[in-house]
Amino acid sequence: MKVGRVTLSDRASAGVYRDLSGPEIERVFRQAWNEECAFIARLLPDDRPAIADALRDLCDREACELVITTGGTGPAARDVTPEATRDVLEKELPGFGEAMRMRSFATVPTAILSRATAGVRGRTLILNLPGNPRAIGECLPPLVPAIREALRHLAGIS
Fold it and tell me: Closest Cα partner for 140 from 69, 75, 88?
């Protein structure tokens, strides 16, 4: 399975600090998925057109079955990942974001500030995750059953 992972961060993309969230997606997903997968990584600044272009490329040209983003889901002016994601989606699946906010809220009350979403473009599931590596480890594993089911539907299996 091909998985795109996109880290959205002005500072990490400028080399101010190392991207920890993208590699954490790979680590957590590989552990939870238990099947072989190949990752295609992108590291971009918080720029809506660039994010939308990268998502289109990973879905349409690279034919990734799953694209996972990290970062840019908060309320700050530069946080535009949900908007860029919606620019390319054909169907939105807001339950993913709702589940992540519910899961995180019990321990991090500010988790409700996340605007993360998910949806479908063609045969690709796109999922926005928070930018914090710890939140990735908390939010991604519980979503795996729904990710599997969505991918089966997109492949025409279910």
Answer: 69
- The values of phi and psi at residue 41, to 5°, are -100, 145
Q: Are 118 and 86 in contact (CB under 8 A)?
A: no
Give the model's confidence band at 158: pLDDT under 50 very low, under 70 low, under 90 confident, else very high.
low
Cα 123 → chain centroid = 16
Please tell me whether residue 156 adopts helix, strand or coil conformation: coil
Query: CA dist 150 to 50, 118, 120, 154, Å?
Result: 26, 11, 9, 6
Residue 79's identity, in one-letter code, is: D
Reported as half-sphere exposure (CB side, CA atoms, 13 A), residue 46 has a value of: 19
Pairing of β 2-8 and β 91-92: unpaired
Instruction: Find the DSSP H helices in 14-132.
Output: 21-33, 48-56, 81-88, 95-105
Give the domains, in start order, of the chain with CATH numbers: 2-154 (3.40.980.10)
Is this model's pTM higher than 0.85 or not? yes
